[in-house]
User: Which sequence fits this backbone?
């Protein structure tokens, strides 16, 4: 059974997703922030909630280009999360499931092993990928299926990972170098070029992206609509920026309040007008070449990954595609991807895509599900086994999961 002393830590490049025993999953920022108004203070992870002004936040991130490189920052965040303010863990009595990126570097894996065993002294650890946890959750929900293909579109990358009987088909894994960070950066550049200098406003523009952007089901039709004037332009939206006095978080103005008549605009509101940016930014995941990234789009990458799987598994992969990660929460994401994959897939095969209720926490849910089974017992590595076998024991234990 899932013990009280087991935690699941999905250690993403942008956010930590944590489940402790049977408590609700918590999502905390995986960063240290500095505010221009409170320069002397660092906000570690969820301490950012107490910041009064989110404008021009300076981010210090432990991850660079998808991999954990800044250990000092990550240690401060883990110390905060494991400490009294958040989880209040007694590490020597605790088991931990910790996620890492696909194809993680050996030096990073060894550093993680040392920190969790030698410094925090966890009772036992299991180091795996978030897609593996998603696979276990899906397998639990669909026990008659042996195959699944996990699409994990996160902060730094988008990975496509096929599984057969909960084992990765390593040679068929695909990666697209587009993630949430790329989309936010592109939106910052477009708004800064056309309207307002926002290159330092990571936090605010990320909210603009989440609140206003969507995936187009007909790209050229939406482009034509953006040429229209007034109420005929159904894409046009005004986004009211926060001033951190009256407005704590920005928001999209209702369509009926949009007007070229300045009398309808409150004098204290600072707004940006969004048209093509609303759908051209998420489009990068489907067509990375739009911004000069010479890679396949998501639908093509899925078919390419499936083509590298054994032929008898391919039809099963197509009907068991799972979407995880924050980017798939854009409106129309699932419908657009299902349509694009259907166009490329052989006619005789079914295409079915599952989007969980919360794609961001789905891997963490999978970790909880897996932890309740006897099957996980063989994958734990205890601190005694580490002390006896060192890094070689970790390499053997975590090689295939």
Assistant:
């Amino acid at each position: 059974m899932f013990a009280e002393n087991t935690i699941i830590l999905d250690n993403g490049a942008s956010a930590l997703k944590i489940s402790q025993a049977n408590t609700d999953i918590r999502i905390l920022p995986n960063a240290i922030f500095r505010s221009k108004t409170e320069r002397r203070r660092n906000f570690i992870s969820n301490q950012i909630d107490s910041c009064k002004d989110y404008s021009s936040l300076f981010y210090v991130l432990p991850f660079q280009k998808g991999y954990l490189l800044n250990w000092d920052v990550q240690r401060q965040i883990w110390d905060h999360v494991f400490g009294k303010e958040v989880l209040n863990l007694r590490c020597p009595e605790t088991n931990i499931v910790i996620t890492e990126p696909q194809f993680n570097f050996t030096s990073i894996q060894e550093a993680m092993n040392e920190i969790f065993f030698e410094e925090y002294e966890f009772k036992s650890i299991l180091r795996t990928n978030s897609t593996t946890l998603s696979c276990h959750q899906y397998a639990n929900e669909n026990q008659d299926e042996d195959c699944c293909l996990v699409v994990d579109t996160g902060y730094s990358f988008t990975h496509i990972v096929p599984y057969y009987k909960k084992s990765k088909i390593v040679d068929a894994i695909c990666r697209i170098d587009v993630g949430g960070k790329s989309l936010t950066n592109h939106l910052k550049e477009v708004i800064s070029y056309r309207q307002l200098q926002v290159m330092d406003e990571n936090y605010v523009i990320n909210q603009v992206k989440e609140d206003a952007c969507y995936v187009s089901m007909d790209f050229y039709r939406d482009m034509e609509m953006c040429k229209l004037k007034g109420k005929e332009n159904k894409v046009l939206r005004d986004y009211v920026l926060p001033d951190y006095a009256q407005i704590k978080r920005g928001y999209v103005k209702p369509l009926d309040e949009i007007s070229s008549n300045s009398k309808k605009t409150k004098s204290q509101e600072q707004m940006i007008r969004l048209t093509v940016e609303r759908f051209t930014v998420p489009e990068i995941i489907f067509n990375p070449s739009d911004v000069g990234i010479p890679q396949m789009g998501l639908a093509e990458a899925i078919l390419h990954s499936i083509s590298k799987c054994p032929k008898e598994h391919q039809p099963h992969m197509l009907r068991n595609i799972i979407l995880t990660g924050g980017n798939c929460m854009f409106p129309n994401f699932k419908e657009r991807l299902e349509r694009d994959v259907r166009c490329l897939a052989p006619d005789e095969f079914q295409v079915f895509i599952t989007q969980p209720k919360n794609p961001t926490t789905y891997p963490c849910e999978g970790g909880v599900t897996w932890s309740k089974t006897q099957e996980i017992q063989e994958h734990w590595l205890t601190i005694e086994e580490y002390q006896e076998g060192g890094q070689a024991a970790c390499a053997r234990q975590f090689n295939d999961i």
Q: What stands out?
A: Residues 180-194 form the longest helix (15 residues). The chain has three domains: 6-130+360-397, 133-178+294-354, 180-280.
